[in-house]
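The pair is quoted verbatim underneath.

:::
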Amino acid sequence: MSLEKIENIIIESLKEYNQSLGSSELKNCTAQTRLYGEKSVLDSIGLVYLITDIEEKISDKFSKNIVLADEKAMSQRTSPFRDVETLAKYIQNLLEE
């Protein structure tokens, strides 16, 4: 699975969420856009929205169901939700399992 394709899915979800807010904060997302933690662009509701939207898009695009917010994700030393790139790599690993 292409990391770039997965990053594009995440960025697309961020842009859609941004539009629903009527904000310009998430307009220019990159692989380094912070999703969670210090200086993140999302609040907890935004992160939940993003996770569910990405799970749905991944299922549609790759015909594989994944769960992003589970015990495995929460027990990682480095949060997979830190930034777009970290989340994309985590999703790529899930898809390859």
User: Anything to note?
Assistant: The chain has a mean pLDDT of 89. Residues 3-96 form a domain with the Non-ribosomal Peptide Synthetase Peptidyl Carrier Protein; Chain A fold (CATH 1.10.1200.10).
